[in-house]
Amino acid sequence: MKKKEESFFKLISQKPWEASQAILDNEHDGKTLNVSKARLGVRTVMVVSTVIFSLFVVSYSDRMLIHDWRSLAEPWLLWMNTAILILTSLVFHKTKVLSHNNEFEKTKKALFVVGFLTFAFITGQLLVWQHFVNLGQYASSNPANAFFYVLTALHALHILGGLYFWAKVTAQLFKNNYNISKVKHNIELCAIYWHFLLIVWLVLFGLMIAT
Amino acid sequence: MSDEYNNSKVETKSADSSSGSYAPPAENIPASEIPEQELYHAKSFWTRWVFCQDAKVIGVQYALTATAVGLIGLVLSWGMRLQLGFPETFSFLGPATYYQSVTMHGMIMVVYLLTALFLGGFGNYLIPLMVGARDMVFPYLNMVSFWMFLVAVLVLISSFFVPGGPTGAGWTLYPPQAILPGTPGSEMGIVLMLVSLSLFVIGFTMGGLNYVITILQARTRGMTLMRMPLTIWGIFTATVLALLAFPALLVACIMMTLDNLLGTSFFMPEIFTMGEQLGTTGGSPILFQHLFWFFGHPEVYIVALPAFGIVSDLISVHARKNIFGYRMMVWAIVIIGALSFVVWAHHMYVSGMNPYFGFFFATTTLIIAVPTAIKVYNWVLTLWRGNIHLTIPMLFSLGFIVTFVNGGITGLFLGNVIIDIPLSDTYFVVAHFHMVMGIAPLMVIFGAIYHWFPLVSGRHLNQTLGKIHFWVSFVGAYAIYFPMHYLGFIGVPRRYYEMYDSPYMASGVGLNQFITVAALIVGFTQIIFLYNIFHSALYGKKSEKNPWKANSLEWHTPEMPPEHGNFGKELPVVYRWPYDFSVPGVDREYIPQHVAPSEVPTAKVEKT
């Protein structure tokens, strides 16, 4: 009998005064979902970030209908950055699999590759900024430019936040005495967050090349 | 029926494993992914009281900071009232300062006082205690959340001291005027305001993560969602709203900051000023309004829902009666929360958006009155034939119900496009929102402080001062805001520095003076209240344990005030909801949540 993961609507239509329900309730362990706190935390952060980016997408779609909108010509560098980000996600997935198979030496190396690729992505994004600045395409030149700068900056900030946790989990692995299940769990959560940011980037990038 | 309930429960516990009719699900639950963490124990003074990770201390820190900044908001309102009531006598407030006072008063009260006090203050203090947890799930993050809030407050206050002063754009900060010369504080003030709001949102998101996840995942054994006190339901739903709505404010803040600093045109249309064209083109001020109110309307319920929850608990405890229609109350909270995301444009009827929008949003606005009315009926029905103790928390709760109904009913008028258009931007609106989201939640805050003060400090607040505080605040609030409805009817616009010799103001001048005097008296009473708090915290009458004879877990900690870790060695196990007052068939008057059914075998169970 798997009681967990009942839908929210089912939970709030329980009848706690009924004898049968009271017996179940007395044994309830106090958790609503069968996930760890950290995983739920990451999920909540992803929901909040999704709201932020969605509102930007809505604003973008609203703003681009106005006549002064001049689309930005995306340089080839952006395609390369996208490729790097996809690669990072793949490597992170591989890292997660490695850690699940308890191959921690390989995991360490893979984590470094992830870090390197992520920094490469951010450097790449900065190079794109430099490219536009050299062309005289400032944020104030056109709303399309402004959105480009804002969205890339926000996305990069999200990645920097992720890197903080990447650094933490890497440091955990290098301690002599670490909690294996905890490290595995943290690596998995970081990987999820990286995949999430990849999806966000693909949506944003797709929006920018489509318009 | 009643006997079955208890006997079967006691029996199944022992005989169940063999018969298997009710397999206790606990045995089938897989082990949690990660073992629970050890509680961090503070050692030094600094980590215990300043950089503290204990949710109770963080709650008090939030409450004190919010109150301090709220006092600034109060003083600003005095300045405005003096100007409006006696424009010739008091001339220290110029038009620019007046607008700045309006703006800062609004923003401080809505965001930095009410939101921070309900969620940061009461949320932090009560959530772990009421759900039976030792602390929030991420105590460190919780601490950072408070310090982020403090920095946000400091940035906000620093805008009083920069060249040009704080922003005077109105608390809605509408562009383009908010960042154009001519509006006070369009230099540094508006930037600091936007930065402060962004910091607040980021800090709040950290706290909000804690509140939601603690309520969902860290409750004690037996505490199902439908056994939680309504206070927790209110705070929970409000936090979910805040997590989804504050991003809109953040997005709007980011874009407006860029419009201001980098000269982008997200919100800035083509503007000609002094015969010259500014560099901006094509931006949409209405887009800002949509973003702002997509945050701004849920914000109303972020303030109201915790108040709904807390007042339900206060009424139940002080009327010694279970809350009427608990499930209905939970549903109403959830439905109001969900609906609050589809009503935002009723703040924008006169903004020039598509008129058909107004039709849609008027409809949703009226629909939201249904669950709200259900809540009011249920409070009244809880009081019906209750053993009403006219304690100060009860007085404030009654004050809340009346005030909330008042403000709610004027809201029904304003929700209709056709009535809103003539009343828009008049004092009728000012009266409405002060009643419904100023006075009403404040009544709950005061009631809650009188109710939980013994828990926090171990001492009672002075009752006489409390009664003075209640009666002056309650009657005074009506003396202030009832006349404002009339001012609105005769067409007095809000946000005007002075009405000069407008002919229709003839009957309004005396009223304005009356309002001002009332506002000063009410404001002064809040100082008596603060004196009461600080004096009683040091010298007040010592409180016995559980002075109100309440059932919820926060009153049943081994120590009062509760210590770090809240519950001593063993967490309590919950067997019932927190509203078992005057249960038929038992000789005790109330049954706390952790009393096992075997201890009260004769209790009769009533359908709720």
Structure, explained:
In chain A, 75% of the residues lie in helices and 0% in strands. By secondary structure, chain A is mainly α. Chain A has two domains: 1-34, no CATH class; 38-210, Cytochrome c oxidase, subunit III, four-helix bundle (Four Helix Bundle (Hemerythrin (Met), subunit A), Up-down Bundle). In chain A, α3 runs antiparallel to α6 (143-174) and α4 packs antiparallel against α5 (104-134). The longest helix of chain A has 32 residues, at 143-174. The mean pLDDT of chain A is 91. Chain B is an all-alpha fold and 608 residues long. Chain B has one domain (51-262, 285-599): Cytochrome c oxidase-like, subunit I domain (Cytochrome C Oxidase, Chain A, Up-down Bundle), CATH 1.20.210.10. In chain B, α3 (55-85) runs antiparallel to α4 (95-131), α6 packs antiparallel against α7 (230-261) and α8 packs across α13. Classes of the chains: A mainly alpha (211), B mainly alpha (608). At the A-B interface, α2, α3, α6 and α7 of A face α1, α6, α7, α8 and α9 of B.
Largest sheet of chain B: 2 strands, antiparallel
Quaternary state of the chains: heterodimer
Shape field of chain B: globular
Kindly state the number of beta strands of chain A.
Answer: 0
User: What fraction strand of chain B?
Assistant: under 5%
Shape of chain A: flat
Structural class of chain A: mainly alpha
CATH class of chain B: Mainly Alpha
CATH topology of the largest domain in chain A: Four Helix Bundle (Hemerythrin (Met), subunit A)
Identify the strand order in the major beta sheet of chain B.
Answer: 1-2
Low-confidence stretches of chain B: 1-35
Number of strands of chain B: 2
Figure out the total of helices of chain B.
15
CATH superfamily of the largest domain in chain A: Cytochrome c oxidase, subunit III, four-helix bundle
Instruction: Name the pair of protein chains with the most residues at their interface, and give those residue counts.
Output: A-B, 58 and 72 residues
> Residue-averaged pLDDT of chain A, rounded?
91
**Considering DSSP H and I runs of 4 or more, what fraction of the residues of chain B is helical?**
55-70%
